[in-house]
Specification:
heterodimer, A: 148 residues, mainly alpha, 5 helices, flat, B: 496 residues, two-stranded antiparallel ribbon, globular
């Protein structure tokens, strides 16, 4: 845990530096725009020092259990699928991208066959399209590639 | 005519078949809207407002009010079942509700949420019935210094939400404050922490943050643990036991008090109120250790406070024409569409309308309970759905919830980012709840401090010269000190 604490400590100290710069840049008196960033700079500095120089409790002795290789791969694939979904949606539209996303994630998480995943994706995509786009009028992207 | 006579007249109008029907439709629509992540009461009412346009004023407002409290209740369902708080006031419900669901007690959690909402909602309406005008006057005397004090009091909750390590809890709160400050400062127009990104100028939306911290991070954790279903033990009884119900009576009454009285105050958000109610419950509970691990009172308290807030919010809305929350501001626009101007004169000029609407709230609360209790079993079964299907659905609804806030994909990216951050924070044992609390409270703290200082030519002296403001601040400091003392005395009994 000590190594993780040091990383957290350094991260907080960096955030403190960012807040100090922003507080100084926007400072216009007590209660002004830079006031809270300045307070946060002090807070992050103290907290960062706390992590760097001890002050944590029993958890220090508990090692962090990171996922195994398979777990890491699955998590990375799911996060990548989410990012790809967000990138693709404006281009290929909500309905099509949702089918692909659900089929893909079902395959990653549950090793489901592509055909079942696609069927699941089509059903859910159609149902959510009706609820969110048709009934609730949410402006979900229709797809720039289709010229819509 | 006495209040009871007026209420009786209102009730006789509220139970006409047409008004009952629209209260029923409103309750269903509101609950459905509340269940959908990201679409909270405000957007729910705004989206469904046109649906009422073909109705006469009374059934239209009855339906809108039913949508409002249905949506306030509906948010608990996804919080309990899949750890997605549909709106900010449901965040606290996830702490114990989701843990109960994982232990096979989703039914009991949903049932106590419905019962607590009903009890607190009904008691709140009784308060609205008998005390609306005098309470509204009191609410008007609360100014920025008192709000500042109230926020300080609410921030004291951070210490008790900190878990095993105060350092980590405070770190979480500081991170929340940092996120809250991102964007343009509404007073000076200066940008803070935007890094030249135009998307960040409008700030980071808290719905996207909570969807990331709770829903996406939870999916990542479940993937790591190779979870096969949210609840991998047999579903236990669908209803709370009589003993649990008895234990929750005090909780519901306290939640009503906190929710109703703070709900009257304009600007006091339901999110902060549900946190305060949860904290109060943990402080008075004999079984503090259980909180955060599936305590039934941990569900009853925020849900009760949430619904009591709903009733309390109607006090300034009806009596003064001041909407205390954004959702009620949209509802106020609904009033205005029909040429109704809420305020003191509304009670004199349109007594039948006002009392019919108030009476319909009693009916609507019963309707919500009758509607939702039979559905508990059905909802609870969702926790047994294979995670290979449920996981992708949670991600999809999280995605839609984040997108729906401002209809842009930047909020989705924000949710994904905070999903990864939430997962990493959990790994280094930093709790995420204080972060959410700070995210809600810091903007309120900043604006109330500025308003207070502008009242006295840049001096914050009003914070110590106004008795109520000073009282709130002193209470906040006292609670913090008491919690710190308790933590140092009983290190082994600290709750999460």
């Amino acid at each position: 845990m000590r190594n993780a604490d040091r990383v957290v400590g350094w991260t907080l100290l960096c955030l403190g530096a960012v807040c100090a710069i922003e507080g100084w840049r926007t400072w216009d008196g007590v209660g002004g725009t830079g006031f809270f960033p300045a307070i946060l700079a002090v807070a992050f500095g103290l907290l960062g020092a706390g992590f760097q120089f001890g002050g944590t409790v029993r958890e220090d002795e508990i090692p962090i259990l990171w996922p195994d290789r398979t777990g890491r791969r699955v998590m990375a694939q799911v996060v990548s699928a989410l990012i790809a979904y967000a990138i693709l949606m404006p281009w290929i539209g909500y309905a099509f991208s949702t089918v692909l996303f659900l089929a893909g994630v079902c395959r990653i998480i549950g090793t489901m066959r592509w055909s079942y995943g696609l069927l699941f994706g089509i059903v859910v995509s159609a149902a959510t399209h009706v609820v969110f786009k048709v009934w609730l009028n949410m402006p979900l992207p229709a797809g720039a590639w289709w010229g819509i | 005519m006495s209040t009871l006579d007026l209420l009786w007249n209102g009730l006789s109008q509220a139970v006409t078949p047409m008004n009952l029907l629209f209260a029923f439709i409103g309750s269903i629509l509101g609950t459905l809207v509340g269940v959908l992540p990201g679409i909270g009461p405000t957007s729910g009412i705004a989206i469904l407002l046109p649906l009422t346009s073909f109705l006469p004023p009374t059934p239209a407002i009855i339906m809108l009010a039913a949508i409002y409290y249905g949506a306030m209740y509906g948010g608990s369902t996804t919080s309990i079942l899949v750890n997605i708080p549909g709106e900010i006031s449901s965040v606290v419900t996830t702490l114990d509700g989701y843990q109960m669901a994982r232990q096979g007690r989703a039914g009991a959690a949903l049932a106590i949420a419905a019962i607590s909402s009903f009890v607190a909602g009904t008691l709140g309406i009784i308060g609205l019935t008998f005390f609306a005008p005098p309470l509204a006057e009191v609410a008007l005397t609360i100014g920025p210094p008192e709000y500042f004090g109230l926020v300080v009091l609410a921030l004291s909750v951070v210490v008790s939400l900190a878990g095993h390590s105060l350092l980590r809890g405070l770190t979480s709160a500081a991170l929340g404050a940092f996120v809250a400050l991102i964007g343009i400062d509404s007073t000076s127009g200066l940008k803070r922490f935007t890094l030249g990104n135009t998307e960040l100028v409008g700030g980071v939306d808290f719905i996207a943050v909570i969807i990331g911290l709770f829903a996406i991070a939870e999916v990542l954790r479940n993937l790591e643990e190779q979870t096969t279903a949210i609840c991998d033990v047999a579903l236990k009884t669908l209803m709370p036991t009589l003993k649990e119900l008895r234990e929750c009576i005090g909780t519901m009454l306290r939640a009503t008090g906190v929710g109703f009285f703070l709900g009257i105050l304009p600007g006091c958000t339901p999110g902060a109120i549900s946190f305060l109610s949860y904290d109060l419950e943990r402080r008075v509970s004999k079984n503090k250790v259980q909180f955060g691990k599936g305590a039934i009172q941990g569900v009853a308290a925020p849900e009760g406070a949430n619904n009591a807030t709903t009733s309390g919010g109607f006090v300034p809305l009806l009596a003064l024409g001041i909407p205390p929350t954004p959702a009620l501001a949209v509802l106020l626009s609904g009033f205005m569409i029909y040429g109704l101007q809420p305020g003191p004169l509304l009670f004199e000029k349109q007594p039948q309308f006002v009392w019919t609407v108030i009476a319909s709230m009693y009916v609507g609360n019963v309707m919500l309970l009758v509607l939702n209790l039979p559905l508990v079993g059905l909802w609870a079964k969702m926790t047994a759905v294979p995670y290979a299907l449920l996981g992708p659905m949670i991600l999809l609804f999280g995605f839609l919830g984040a997108f729906s806030v401002r209809n842009n994909l930047f909020d989705v990216a924000t949710a994904i980012f905070f999903g990864v951050v939430g997962y990493l924070l959990e790994k280094v044992k930093i709790p995420t709840t204080p972060m959410v609390l700070a995210l809600i409270l810091v903007p309120m703290l900043e604006s109330s401090l500025r308003q207070t200082m502008s009242m006295m030519a840049g001096s914050p002296v009003l914070l110590v010269t106004r008795p109520l403001a000073l009282g709130f601040i002193a209470a906040g400091v006292l609670l913090t000190v008491l919690t710190l003392v308790a933590r140092s005395r009983k290190p082994r009994d600290r709750g999460k």
